[in-house]
Every structure is written in structure tokens, then in C-alpha cells.
Amino acid sequence: MRLIQVRVRDESRDSVLDTLDDADADYVIADEAAGNDASIVYFPTPAGAVEEMLGRLSEAGLADDAFTIVTDVETATTPHFDELEGRYTQGPEDEIGLSHAELRTKAQELTPETTMFVVFAALSAILATAGLLLNSAIVIVGAMVVAPFAGSSLSASVGLVSDDGQSTANSLRSQFLGLVVATISATVAAAVFRWGHLVPSTLAVGRITQVGSFTTPTLLTLTIAVVAGAAGALALSTDLPVTIAGVAVAAAVVPATAAVGIGVVWAEPLLALGALALLLVNVVFINLSALVALLGFGYRPSEVSSLREWLSFSPRRIVSVLVAIGLAVLVVAMLFGTYQYFLFDQAVNRNVDEVLDDPDYSNLELASASAEFGAAGLLGEEGSVTVVAARTTGEPYPRLSERLRRHIAAETNRDVSVEVRFVEYQRAGSG
């Protein structure tokens, strides 16, 4: 429920009040101090009716720049409010009901001022770097909670659907600043951790499970970004808390920035490039999915202003078009890489199953099989596979890795390296 307060000049007062009467809205009027030719009109309205009410008042003569305040209220007791609320349970035409102004305000409130934004971006990246090196999911989740990226990641789509170009531009600048700060902070933190001997300097970071999870764009990581953007848009356009969706946004951003920093410090260019590719594609898809979700919820930019904007060939418009083209190329390239990885992963799983189905390996129990490739893998040149299998103590399988390599290489046409790790166990029968 919202309480709208508008300043109405005397010449448009009658038409504004007639409009409210036609809408069955209950209102009160407070005259300004003597000598002023205006009044303040107060009326409660359902959240879903705010945009339509303000539009009707504008048509009735209320100035577009009229003093207007929309506040959240818990309850209201007026003669016709229940009837009005019944018509706007979900908003006009069953759309999500927050107005464009409320949507912008809610998104802006999620982004702290610049100094605090930079501080929290740096702290979240440092915490995520420690979490990856410790292989601790709990620490990484803590970094996501601290991260401030929800507001900046969602404001761009809000600006696009509400004809607020400045909000979109501010959001893109904020996202760029946050990613740069987070990546630099992660790199510095990784350097301190390594050369300060907080972790062994010869640590094989590529073998850390949590690090490996954020070094290659996959369908699962892409799903995180898409769902995070859509969930954030849903929370923004309703009364649902956005903080939970903010953690999902951070899950798609913060660990990847930490993985980039770790790859740089440990001189693992493929790891760093893979994490950077994951970071960029996640950021793009968070923005795209949030935009698509808002459009699906019924938010639309003004057709007239949008047409005028696209027909203006100003330097800003040219730069925006070039950036959009660049992002489109990036998205297509990342989608192609993700599809290549999906096919590679499927082939690996299929061949591992086929080889281990052989009677020679009947005593082996497959624990896991993971496939990955770095930047060169996007071109179909190489890949690596790690298979973990459980065996009884002393059972040798010296040719298993080579046999797996031949099968996978033959199907994928890649120069594949295969590593087989064994988990040994003993088994005692009953009786």
C-alpha cells in the first residue's frame, strides 16, 4: 500500500479531484500557507495502482514536475479503499504493480554511495579469494553476503524500461568500477596470501575444487547468472526482499573475480582467462535476464521517447551502439564456448561410462568425473579430464588413463590429458 502526496495548483485542482473521484480514491486536502495558490492532496492507493493514478492525474492537468511523494504505509481505513485494492491486487492488467519511480528508487537504494561501494567490493573479493584458497564454501558464501553488486547490476535494466538513460549509464559505470576494484583487490590479496606464506607458494591452485568451479563458463554457471538476474528483477518489482536475490547476483560475480586474481598471481594464464570469460558472460546475462524479466512483468519504456532516443545520432548514442555491438559479440562468443564445453563434457561422461563398463574394471567404483578446458579449449585444441575412482587396496590399473584418453580424444578431436585418481578402501565380508 502506498500514500501519495501531490502539490496541486488551484487552476488544476478541480480536474484533479474529479479524476480521483472517478477512480473511487479517498483523499484529503491541506491548503498551503496564506498567499500560495496550491494545496497538498493526500490519498492512499494499492501499490499496483500508483503508476496508473499518477498517469491519470497528469492527464488531468497535474504538472509533470509537480511536487510528488510516494511512501509505503502499513494500513489505511477509508470508505472505498477495499474496493480499490480489489481492482489492483496484482496491478493493472495483472502486471507487477510498482511504479517506474518506485522501481528506480528501490534499485538505487541497493547501491551504497561510491566510497562504501568500493570498500565492500574490495572486502568481498578479498574474502572470496581466501575462501577459494581454503576450499571453503562457507567463506565464499560470506563473501557473497558482503558483496554490493545487486543494485548496480539491476539498475541498468530498470533504467532501460523506465526511460532513465542516466540510471542505465550510472549502473554500467558502477558495474565496471566494482569489477575492476574487486579484481584488483583479489589479485593483491592472492599475492599477499602467496608471498606472505599464508598458503604454500607452490600450491597447485588448479586442483582446488572451489577454484576449478569458477574457471570455465558452463551451462550451470550460466544458469546461476540468468536466475539471479530474473530473481532480482522480481524482488525489485514487488515487496519481496532484494537481499536474497543480491546473494545470487554475488554468487555469479564475486568468486569469478577471486579466481581471476588467483590465476594471475599463480601465473596460470588459462585459469585466469577462463575465470575472466566466466565473469564477463555472467555479468552480461545478469543484466539481460533482469531486462527480459522486467519486460515480461509488463514494464515498458515510453515508445515516443525511445524512438526519439534511437533516432538521435549523438556521440553518446554512437558509443552506446558500439558498446552494444561489442557486448553482443561477446555474448555470442561465450555462448559458443559454453556449447563447446557442454558437448565436451557429455563426450567425457559417455566415454568414462563405456570404459568402466568393461569387465576389466568391474571392481572399480566411479566417484566423479570432471572435464575442463581453458581459453585454448574454446577453439577445440585441448582439454583435460580428471577421474576419481574407488578401488580395493593393491588393485593396479596402469593403462586406465591412457585408455580413457584414447577414447575421449577419438570422439572429441581434442588433445586431451587424462588424470585418474584412486581412493583406496578395504572391504570385509560377513561370515
UniProtKB/TrEMBL annotation:
Transmembrane helix recorded as keyword: yes
A Pfam family the protein falls into: DUF389
InterPro entries: DUF389
Keyword annotations of the record: Membrane, Transmembrane, Transmembrane helix
Keyword Amino-acid biosynthesis: no
Transmembrane segment boundaries: 114-134, 140-162, 174-196, 216-236, 243-267, 273-297, 318-342
Alphabetical list of PANTHER family matching this protein: AT15442P-RELATED
Protein name as annotated: TIGR00341 family protein
Lineage start: Archaea, Methanobacteriati, Methanobacteriota, Stenosarchaea group, Halobacteria
